[in-house]
């Protein structure tokens, strides 16, 4: 029995080491899907799953493309083609991404590159505007935009980046009339001691490993 629990402990701790990357600048691309389930590993849309888009709207470039973005399209539904997602009402979607900051509260910089359908109205860091958008641009879903050296204040522990995307059918936001496909493709960089937040499964494995170690020591 001791050996069995020791095995669980070792497996759990090893799994955690693989789940948590070394602390360094954090780079991420939308559409990251390590387990191939069609869902972005770390993004959410309005609190739900961020699906990798499988049917593309008219005018969307083929991605990933090093010259545009290394990200893939994500959205609230995998099927975002004009034929099947037409007549969707316009609204604001929130694409959220959490990351860990190892140091104390401080100012750091971010680089962003993205395409959006329709408009990126802002990027928030812990609820505070970073002043990044592509408002007033013509057909933003066809063009890659970038903003480098964006300053923001991070706090120790978990931080949240939110991309605010208005689905407007080509109209300027705010717009709540009939719209159509929507999504975002982006890559970004957080400078400093940032890492992705471990998924619940990784934390469960760590718990099993620690429990196994505790039992083994008592035995």
What's the topology here?
Blueprint: H1 2-19, E1 24-29, E2 39-45, E3 48-52, E4 74-75, H2 82-85, E5 91-101, E6 106-117, E7 119-125, E8 128-129, E9 145-154, E10 157-167, E11 183-196, H3 200-218
Antiparallel strand pairs: 1-11, 2-3, 2-5, 3-4, 5-10, 5-11, 6-9, 6-11, 7-8, 7-10
What would your notes on this structure say?
The protein has 219 residues and is α+β, with helices and mostly antiparallel strands. It folds into 2 domains: 1-20 and 200-219; 22-197, Jelly Rolls, CATH 2.60.120. The chain contains 3 helices and 11 strands. Strands 1, 2, 3, 4, 5, 6, 7, 8, 9, 10 and 11 form an 11-stranded antiparallel β-sheet that branches. Residues 5-22 and 200-216 have low confidence and may be disordered.
Distance between the termini: 10 Å
Silhouette: globular
Q: H/E element string?
A: HEEEEHEEEEEEEH
User: Do you know the CATH architecture of the largest domain?
Assistant: Sandwich
Total strands: 11
Give the helix tally.
3
pLDDT below 50 for ≥5 consecutive residues: which ranges? 5-22, 200-216
Question: In total, how many domains does the architecture comprise?
Answer: 2
Radius of gyration: 20 Å
Any idea of the CATH topology of the largest domain? Answer: Jelly Rolls
Based on secondary structure, the structural category is: alpha+beta
Relative helix content: 10-25%
- Identify the CATH class of the largest domain: Mainly Beta
Largest sheet: 11 strands, antiparallel
């Amino acid at each position: 029995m001791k050996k069995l629990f020791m095995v669980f402990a070792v497996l759990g701790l090893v799994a955690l080491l693989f789940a948590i990357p070394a602390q360094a600048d954090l780079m991420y691309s939308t559409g990251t899907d390590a387990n191939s389930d069609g869902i972005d590993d770390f993004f959410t849309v309005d609190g739900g799953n961020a699906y990798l888009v499988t049917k593309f709207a008219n005018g969307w470039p083929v991605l990933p493309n090093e010259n545009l973005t290394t990200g893939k399209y994500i959205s609230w539904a995998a099927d975002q083609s004009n034929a099947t997602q037409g007549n969707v009402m316009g609204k604001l979607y929130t694409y959220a991404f959490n990351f860990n900051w190892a140091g104390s509260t401080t100012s750091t910089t971010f680089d962003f590159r993205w395409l959006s359908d329709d408009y990126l109205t802002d990027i928030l860091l812990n609820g505070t505007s970073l002043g990044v958008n592509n408002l007033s641009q013509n057909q933003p879903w066809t063009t890659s935009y970038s903003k480098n050296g964006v300053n923001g204040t991070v706090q120790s522990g978990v931080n949240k980046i939110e991309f605010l995307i208005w689905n407007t059918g080509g109209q300027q936001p705010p717009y709540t009339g009939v719209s159509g496909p929507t999504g975002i493709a982006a890559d970004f960089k957080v400078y400093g001691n940032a890492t992705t937040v471990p998924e619940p499964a990784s934390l469960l494995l760590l718990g099993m490993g620690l429990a196994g170690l505790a039992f083994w020591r008592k035995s």
